[in-house]
Write a structure and sequence with these properties.
32% of the residues lie in helices and 20% in strands. By secondary structure, it is α+β, with helices and mostly antiparallel strands. The protein starts with a strand and ends in an 8-residue tail after the last helix.
Length: 96
């Protein structure tokens, strides 16, 4: 279950994804499969090849891309790995 984001933040992320930009969205998240994670960062891009290349530089596999919504493909990042990737991207402000 996702919560803790404003409609305007979600809209901005969707627009950036649609433009083919690598877009980041962090929100609170509860999932029984990952009890130690309270937040998730979605990294999306409508240009699948661009998203795959971005993922490669962070050792993310293409099959990990969530494509349930065809117009919003994204990686879900959480835990220590998410924090490491966000720091490498200079996005420390998204770690909370």
């Amino acid at each position: 279950m996702a919560f803790g984001i404003k409609r305007s933040e979600l809209k901005r992320w969707k627009e950036e994804v649609a433009r083919g930009e690598i877009a980041f969205l962090t929100h609170y998240w509860l999932d029984d499969r990952f009890p130690d994670s309270k937040t998730v960062t979605k990294v999306g891009c409508s240009d699948i090849q661009k998203l795959i290349e971005w993922g490669k530089k962070h050792h993310l596999q293409p099959e990990w891309i969530d494509q349930r919504k065809a117009n919003l493909p994204h990686f879900d990042l959480f835990g220590a790995r998410r924090d490491e990737i966000l720091r490498k991207e200079g996005l420390d402000h998204l770690i909370w």
